[in-house]
Amino acid sequence: MERLKEEVIKLIEGLRDEIIELSDRIHKNPELGFEEHKACAWLTDVLSEHGFEVERGVAGLETAFRATFTGSREHPKVALLAEYDALPEIGHACGHNIIAASSVGAAIALSKLNLPGTVVVLGTPAEEGGGGKIIMIEQGAFKGIDAAMMIHPSDQNLVSKGSLAIKEIRMKFKGKLAHAAAKPEKGINALDAVIQAFNNINALRQHLTEDVRIHGIITHGGVKPNIVPDYAEAYFYVRALDENYLLEVLEKVKNCAKGAALAQGAKVEFEVGRGYRSHKLNHALVEAFKANLLALGVKPDRPPEHGGMGSSDIGDVSHVVPVIHPYISITEGELPSHSREFAEAACSEKGHQGLLIGAKALAMTAIDLYASSTLGRL
Ligand SMILES: [Zn+2]
Ligand SMILES: [Zn+2]
Q1: Which protein residues have their CB within 5 A of the ion that is ligand 2?
Q2: Residue 377 lies in a domain
Q3: 133 Cα: distance to centroid of ligand 2 (angstroms)
Q4: Same structural domain for residues 205 and 265?
Q5: Each residue of 285-306: pLDDT tens digit?
Q6: What residues does 215 pair with on adjacent strands?
Q7: How far is the CA of 289 from the centre of ligand 2 (A)?
Q8: Closest ligand (CA of 88)
Q9: Which domain holds residue 190?
Q10: Ligand 1 centre and the CA of 67: distance in Å?
Q11: 0.85 cut: is pTM over it?
C-alpha cells in the first residue's frame, strides 16, 4: 500500500502542469451554478483523454457529469467529487476551481495504478445554493458508490469540520399603498413589517443555541419614499447543527414575521426552500485522510471550538454514502472565503500548492479504501 501511495504521489507530480493549468483556466472563466458549460467541457475532455468513460448531462443536469475508470474489479467504487461553480460578481471566491482540479488530478493518477476497484469523478454543479448534489442523489447518480471524497480550499487545514443544516425562507409582506405624506393613515407599510421582523428575530437570538445562525437581507423595500410600500420582501438563511432543531427555529422565525405583519396590519406569506442537510462525519475516513496529510508533511489545524461552519450539499451526500470533505489551506494567513482576496488566492502559488496537496491526500485516502474492506462503512 505504501508503494502505491508513493507511486500515486509521483503520478500527481507528473500531472502538475496539466492540473494547475486546468484549475487556472476554470478560475479565469467563472460560471454560475448550472451554467458551468466551459468547466464541464474542459474537465470531461481531460478525463476522456486519460481513458475515462465520460457521460455528460447526468441526472438531467446539463453541467453534471460522470467519468468512470474501472480497474480489475467493479468495487470498491470511489467517487471524487468535482465542484466548479463560481459566485456572482466575485468569481471563484470559494475556490471551486481547485476542488475540480484536485479531484480530477487524483482520479487520473489513481486510474494509472491498475487498482482493484473503480474510480469515478462526479461533476456536481451549483453547490452555491443550487444543490446540484441533491438532484443527483434523487436521480440515482450516487447509487453503487462506496465512498465519496473532495477537498475544499480554505485558510486552514481542517480535516473534521462538519457543516450546518440550512433552510432558506423568503418572507413576502403585503400592505396597502397610500401617499406617504398626504394620507399616510390610509396606508399599510409592508417595509415596516419587514424591519419589525428583523427586530423580532434579533430579540430571538439570545434564546437559541450557539450553533444557530440566522442571517437575512431585504430583497424588496418599496419604490419611492412618498409611496407607502405595499410590498416588501426579506430573504433569510436559517442554520443549525441539528436538523430537527432547525425546523423548530424556522417556526420561531416565521412567528417573528407573523407578529411583525400583525402589528402593521399587513399579511405575510412564506416560501421555504429545500435547504441542505448537516454533514454526518465519517471518522474512519477522516482519520485516514489526516494520516495521509501528515505523511505529506501537512499538520492539520485545530478546529475552532465554536462556529466556523457553513452549509453545503455535501451534507446531503453524507447521509447517503460515507464522505470526506476536508479543508486545505491556500492562503498565507487568515482570509475568509467569499471575498475578492480569497478569489486571488485560488489561482496563486499557495493555491497551486494546496491543489497538489489536496489531490495527493485524496488519492492516498482512496488507496486506503481500495485496500480496506471496512474503511468508510456507514
Ligand atoms: Zn462557497
Ligand atoms: Zn465552496
Answers
A1: 94
A2: no
A3: 13
A4: yes
A5: 999 999 999 999 999 998 887 7
A6: 237
A7: 19
A8: 1
A9: 165-272
A10: 24
A11: yes
